[in-house]
Amino acid sequence: METARQTNERIAELALAETSKQGDYVIGGGDLLGIEVFDVPELSREVRVNESGFVSIPLVPVKVQAAGLTAFQLQDKLAELLQSNGLVTHPQITVTVKEQHSEPITVIGAVRTPLTLQAVHQMTLLQVLSQAGGITDDAGSKVLITRVRRLPDPATPDPANLSNNPANNPAASDPAANSQAVSQGAGSESKDSISIDLNDLLDSGDPKFNIPLYGGDVVTVPHSGVIYAVGAVQRPGGFAMETDRQQLTVLKIVSLAGGLSPTAKPSKAVILRQPSGSAQRLQLPVDVKRIITLKSDDLVLQRNDILYVPDSTGKHALRRSAEIAIAIATGAAIIRVQ
Questions:
Q1: Please, which pLDDT band fits residue 288 given cuts at 50, 70 and 90?
Q2: Residues spanned by the domain of 208
Q3: Over the chain, what is the mean pLDDT?
Q4: What total number of domains does the chain contain?
Q5: Coil, strand, or helix at residue 11?
Q6: Which of 99, 124, 150 is the last residue of a domain?
Q7: Is the pLDDT of residue 141 over 50?
Q8: For 67-100, b where at least 16 C-beta lie within 10 A, e where not — what string?
Q9: How many helices (H) and strands (E) does the chain have?
Q10: CA–CA separation, 292 vs 338, rounded Å?
Q11: What gap in Å lies between CA 90 and CA 156, rounded to an integer?
Q12: Going by DSSP bridges, is the β-strand pair 104-109/115-118 parallel, antiparallel, or unpaired?
């Protein structure tokens, strides 16, 4: 278990290491390229990468995929095409990026600073999360990336299949990404939804989880529920559920809180619950002692519940338990349950 602060420190550290080894600029849609073929001025020109990631070269019978490649990789690809099509025997090509046209990468959800970044160079998931200040206390354990791809018309002779191209769809070659593409017809748009486990991203060290992001991507960190255990427990605090589907019970929360303190009055515990749309919190008496001794059924807690276990040394009446528990929970550290 760790706090959001500890998680964010690791995100920042890993992102800094990633930035230090950042490679060459990766060409994207909308970039303006200068292509110079030595001693063949009729093939030398400026071309703009279309929004599908391709460029057209005179006398070359197919469109050439440029997006996702560095300038050096595109040079090699063009040289091979010119030679294989019998246009130039020993082509010497120089490709330069004249203009970088970026699309925004949007970061929303349970991050410290939701923002929009201009993708003027390739960025990774870790770098984008770091730019957003890391995650909030109630962040879930998944990061979702939504990517819109523009599919070419099948009638157009493209040499590559976009849906199988890792530059346009990292999930196609990434077993870590759970991607679902929804095609909406020829020449239209397709959406990929990629799910990355935050723990895998931070702990595995495997670069396949730290996927590259592109202009137009939307990164969402879903909020999860937080359940508090306060009062006479060993480690009072809030515990962030991985997902809203995860079930935390009274027994699990007491265990996560390190158990009861020696002066606890578990038979007088209460659950403070605020129904949706209500300004008032309900006080639900719960006998934690009977649950621990398996004499009563364990109770499933809901997001934002506060389990308050009073102290036998105190003289607080039950009617004041709500304000006491809320006051304690307000300053409690929130722990992410991994």
A1: very high
A2: 2-23+102-221
A3: 79
A4: 3
A5: helix
A6: 99
A7: yes
A8: bbbbbeebbebbbebbeeeebbeebebebebeee
A9: 7, 22
A10: 23
A11: 29
A12: antiparallel
